[in-house]
Write a structure and sequence with these properties.
single chain, 476 residues, alpha/beta, binds nicotinamide-adenine-dinucleotide
């Protein structure tokens, strides 16, 4: 009987969530119909309010991220608050231009006409966010979605509970729930939300869950963006100072304790400089986080014990040349370097998503190719080289989401660049203007002039074929 009542309780809870979701979607759809979400001045006033509210709660954001995985204030400002504020500012600055119909060159075939692209919001958007940058990766897509005139239901991650609660508090203060609503929960709640019909789904997370989301969207033909992950290679030829490479790599790999979708996953370094690079990496790690990174205020923790166990398991069959120390009670794993892991070792199988850096070596471009062709198209791609033709060849030969030459991850920081994956690392992109475009359907419109009506296209076509061919040739 106790088992049955537990099942009944679960059934009741599911019913409650479904009813709540249906009600929220219904309210948002009604609100969408009023066209209030397309009122630019109203949108701007809410974005300004959001900006104020975020800055007012700066300390609370630091506290939440610290409680969730001991993220430092500096990293929190740099990678969560700062990026969100820039996204709001860019939207406030450009939203009038973005939302205006865009005049394009008309086709000579339709002469005379004026041609435009109209941006139209999809409607009710579901945003599902991950835990690794729990503030930024939740709010940035919400900003893009509402800037395009949609309503949003945001489902933040259950693994960063303090930040998710704060997100709910902030967004509830700024937006009426018929415009933006936060629904917290884990897999059961997200599964139920995915059963509903949405006008657009924006998902950030793992490849495996991305496939579940795509399947849920298919019966409704709901368009979607999938921001996923992958094993991001970092190729290092012998033409650059290993000291500078090491400094930039230690930042790129160990910021957020390596829990970054675009962190370099593994190094592929020219054999002639490997020993020197490893030595420089060790000294740069010590410079950044001290002899004992666990005591450093700047080094975050692994998000939970499950992920820590996943990572420490990767060390079992590896040659650890630096770090490797962990503390289960503190969810701590030291910045760790691994030498020449085998392809079938755990660390080379899946995306690492933690502070473990495998170092492989190569001698010829053929070696590089045989390593890269082992994996699906990654989200990020890095090359350190002073040899322009080498890095250009790498850019052109391989397919990947986006990348940086002579550094790592910083392509994310330019909102003029699209951010997104390809193949297994995702579908679609966002940031800045592209974020607005992602969340709007583009309507192609021709406004035909009435002052002239060229008779060529009308039947009967007698003797008109040659003139038609000439016209196509002329228009080229
Ligand atoms: P995840 O896929 O486990 O979870 C993401 C979201 O999906 C969460 O909100 C979670 O509640 C929900 N979810 C989890 N399992 C589900 C299921 N079975 N059915 C329905 N919903 C489910 O990802 P994560 O662990 O939060 O984040 C890490 C992954 O995200 C990594 O693979 C990383 O590369 C990727 N990532 C990608 C980007 C990007 O911009 N491309 C950014 C950050 C993280």
């Amino acid at each position: 009987p106790s088992k049955r009542s537990a099942m009944e309780r679960m059934y009741e809870e599911n019913r409650r969530i479904i009813m709540e979701a249906k009600l929220i979607i219904e309210n948002q759809r009604q609100y969408f119909q009023t066209r209030a979400t397309r009122d630019i001045e109203l949108l701007k006033s809410r974005l300004i309010k959001l900006r104020v509210e975020i800055l007012k709660r700066e300390d609370a954001i630091y506290e939440a991220l610290y409680k969730d995985f001991k993220k430092s204030k500096f990293e929190t400002y740099f990678s969560e608050i700062g990026i969100v504020i820039s996204e709001i500012d860019a939207t406030l600055k450009h939203i009038n231009t973005w939302s205006k119909p865009k005049k394009v060159r008309a086709s000579g075939l339709n002469f005379p006409s004026r041609d435009y692209i109209y941006s139209e919001p999809y409607g009710c958007v579901l945003v599902i966010a991950p835990w690794n940058y729990p503030f930024q990766l939740a709010i940035a897509p919400v900003i893009s979605a509402i800037s395009a005139g949609n309503t949003v239901v945001l489902k933040p991650s259950e693994h960063t509970a303090h930040t998710s609660q704060l997100l709910e508090d902030i967004l509830t203060t700024v937006f009426p729930t018929e415009h933006v609503k936060v629904i917290q929960g884990g897999i059961p709640e997200t599964t139920l939300l995915l059963k509903e019909r949405w006008d657009y789904i924006f998902f950030t997370g793992s490849v495996a869950v991305g496939k579940i989301v795509a399947k849920a969207a298919a019966p409704f033909l709901t368009p979607l963006t999938l921001e996923l992950g992958g094993k991001n290679p970092c190729i290092i030829d012998p033409t650059m100072s290993t000291k500078l490479i090491a400094k930039r790599l230690v930042w790129g790999k160990f910021v957020n304790a390596g829990q970054t979708c675009i962190a370099p996953d593994y190094l592929l370094v020219h054999k002639s400089i490997k020993a020197q690079l490893i030595s420089d990496l060790k000294s740069e790690i010590i410079k950044a986080y001290g002899e004992n990174p666990q005591e450093s205020e700047d080094y975050p923790r692994i998000v939970n014990s499950k992920n820590l166990a996943r990572l420490t398991n990767m060390l079992q069959d590896s040659e650890v040349v630096f770090g490797g120390v962990s503390d289960t009670d503190d969810c701590y794993l030291a910045p760790t370097l691994i030498n020449e892991p085998a392809f079938d070792s755990a660390v080379m199988k899946d995306e690492i998503f933690g502070p473990i850096l495998p170092i492989l070596s190569y001698e010829t471009e053929k070696d590089i190719h045989s390593v890269l062709s082992h994996y699906d198209k990654p989200l990020g791609f890095y090359v350190f080289s002073n040899n322009t033709s080498f890095y250009k060849k790498m850019i052109e030969t391989y397919s990947f989401g986006g990348g940086t030459i002579n550094d790592t991850m910083i392509h994310f920081g330019n909102s003029n660049l699209p951010f997104g994956g390809v193949g297994e690392s995702g579908i679609g992109a966002y940031h800045g203007r592209l974020g607005f475009d992602t969340f709007s359907h583009k309507k192609g419109i021709v406004i035909k002039g009435n002052w002239l009506d060229i008779p060529l296209r009308y039947a009967p076509y007698t003797n008109k074929l040659n003139a038609l061919k000439k016209l196509f040739k002329f228009l080229g």
